[in-house]
Amino acid sequence: MESVSMNLVKLTGFESIYAIDDFQKEYAKLFGKSIAQRKEYYKKLLVNLGILDKLKLDALEMQQFEPLSNEDGLYSIRHVSKVNPRVIFTMVTSDGLIILLTCAKEKSTSDYTRAIKKARQFRNEILQSLQEGDNR
Questions:
Q1: Residues ≥6 apart with Cβ < 8 Å to 101
Q2: How far apart are CA 93 and CA 88, in angstroms?
């Protein structure tokens, strides 16, 4: 798999939430031309990010958060609905940083599988970059 150049952006209003630099554009694209849906789900996402920012991994006790099966260190924020958007994130526990990696509408299993694969690649690159930074 080819290497992806990325930057992390700290999300305004949160202590420890970061995102891949094009995450917000990618999230907006999930909803196409439906501005009302985009606003509705973005508002829900912000509420859940607030919970995650405060509770960290303890937030996984709540139904809208879940660890991904067979994916060490990847988690999902889900809004079960007709639209079914998912946000995949990781946590760098040594720093307590939460990083939003990617998102997808789960219309089919393959949509979610592609998003998980992308998130896994991003997570691996981030961890490698952090390790290289520690070794300098």
A1: 20, 23, 74, 88, 89, 90, 118, 119, 122, 123
A2: 16
